[in-house]
Amino acid sequence: MSRLQELKDLVASFEKDFVKFYDKGNKSAGTRVRKNMNELKKKAQEIRKEVQEIKAQAKGDEEPASGS
User: Fold this and answer.
1) Gyration radius from the chain CA atoms
2) 2-13 vs 27-62: helix axis angle to the nearest 10?
3) Overall average pLDDT of the 15-20 stretch
4) What does the pLDDT look like over 22-52, one tens digit per residue?
C-alpha cells in the first residue's frame, strides 16, 4: 500500500496552493497548482504502468507449460 500512501502524501502537499488559489485568488498559487497536477499525472502514469506490468507478469505465471 505504499503507492497509495505516496498518492495521499502528494495530494496533501498540494493543499496550501489549492487554498491560496481557489479561496484567496492568488494567481501564483494557480501556477503551482497546475505544476502539482502535472506531477500527479506523472505519478498516476507511473502507477498505471506498474499495475499493467504486475498483471502481465501474473498472467504469464498462470499459463500452463506447453508439452512440446
Assistant:
1) 19
2) 170
3) 97
4) 999 999 999 999 999 999 999 999 999 999 9
CA angle 12, 10, 39 (to 5 degrees): 130
Q: What is the DSSP letter of 63?
A: S
- 32 neighbors 2 (Cβ within 8 angstroms): no
- The residues spanned by each domain of the chain are 2-56
Cell of 29: 498559487
The cell numbers describing 7, all together, are 498518492
Name the residue among 31, 42, 41, 33 with its Cα closest to residue 13: 33
Rounded CA gap, 14 and 36, in Å? 7
Please tell me the predicted confidence (pLDDT) of residue 66. 61
